[in-house]
């Protein structure tokens, strides 16, 4: 199984999304988001799927829900790094890794 590494920015983005959902939605929506992230993490750990290529070298994207995408990179056959949880309504030109 692959190891998933969360960089500092990905952790910050993740918790900011949870805070936003708690303030503006319901605990049920928060739990759905957490479950979606866990599911994608599991799928990537198993190595069964690699998701959408991006215009960024060696960086892939998976849409978690209409509003949020996860950007990650494959470090090696056994390691993946989560880079960003990005709000899809933001200007993609502002995306930095």
The coarse overall form would be: globular
Major sheet characteristics? 5 strands, mixed
**CATH 2nd-level architecture:** 2-Layer Sandwich
Q: Name the CATH superfamily classification.
A: RelE-like
The CATH class label is Alpha Beta
Roughly what is the average pLDDT, rounded to an integer? 94
Structural class of the helices, strands and pairings?
alpha+beta
Distance separating the two termini = 25 Å
Q: Could you please say which CATH topology applies here?
A: YaeB-like fold
Order of helices and strands: EHHEEEE
Radius of gyration, in angstroms, nearest whole number: 13 Å
**Beta strands, count:** 5
Q: How many helical elements? A: 2
Helix content range: 25-40%
- β-sheet strand percentage: 25-35%
Number of domains: 1
Numbering strands along the chain, what is their spatial order in the largest sheet? 1-5-4-3-2
**Oligomerization state:** single chain
Unreliable residue runs: none
Please, could you describe this protein's structure?
- By secondary structure, the protein is of the alpha+beta class.
- It has a single domain, classed as RelE-like (YaeB-like fold, 2-Layer Sandwich), CATH 3.30.2310.
- Helices cover 38% and strands 32% of the residues.
- A hairpin with a 2-residue loop joins β4 (68-76) and β5.
- The radius of gyration is 13 Å and the shape is globular.
